[in-house]
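--- STAGE predict ---
source: upstream dedup step, 1 unique chain passed
mode: sequence only
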Amino acid sequence: MKSEYSKKETFFGKMQALILTLKFFIILGMRIGYPCINLSINCKADRRFRLQNLTEDKFDNTVLNNLECLRRILLWNLERGILFFRITSNLIPFASHRKNPYDWEKKFSGIFKEIAFLINHSNIRISMHPGQFTVINSPKDSVVENALQELHYHLRLFKLLEVDSNAKIQIHVGGVYGDKQVSIDRFLKNYEKLPSDLKKHLVIENDEKNYTISECIKISKKCGVPVVLDVLHHELNGDGMDILEAFLEIQETWHSSHGPPIVDYSSPSREKRHGAHNVTLDEKHFISFLEKFYKFKFDLMLELKDKEKSALKALQIINQRFPNIKPNNVDTITTKTT
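--- STAGE serialize ---
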């Protein structure tokens, strides 16, 4: 299978030159990121197909497309000072499925090594967010087992990308199943069974329906899992705690080995269903958020429908209104808007 990624020396030479030119550093603040898809470039890193159509050629072509697109996205982001990215869980279709016989880790080790080089030499932080069915507090053993298989797939990806514990796998606590305390206890029991190399990447977030930020913090105090603050979910499913107080509380769940805390940011959509994320950055809402948080060190994931466009807009607002944050900018870089 011929591909650009076979030209390793050329790629690594270009990458070293790019990184030396950019000279990225962070003084006070935050890395800005967005999830999974870049709408400005002509590729998708989450191409899939039906399980019934699984063949070696179909699988290989899809995975190669997804990995090459991921590399393009990360390079595009890096050139514009966007140093936080959530990689799609669909990167390797059916990776955790028992009917997938292909050794994708070995077959694509070359391009994984290139992406790993890019990530680990440019201060990019990555995360992943398994889907809604990745629930480790389910009363059904089969659901928990499937969730564990999916988490181990994410861990395998992280190992191929050679990332440290700054890279995070973000999940929800799960369902309530008629008894919240029993469900929390079941989460704690199953969490404790996880291997340490998976635990070091795992984080939980408050959700819009079942578990508030206070409940996530209580869980963290019992098992040590860091807590991500989701701003929109807190607005929808708050428990009386002020947003700044909530951040100060979750900040205590993050230790130096975890990397900076992560905050998921969105504002509620004015047009769609209750709880839907906004299409684009609401500048007034975002500025109000930053006025409360600009003094703190954390990384910000923008969960907005227009993806990188809002990330670029956020960088511009920070540069213009909050210059002391200096997020991922140096004097040799100007944020691109196209």
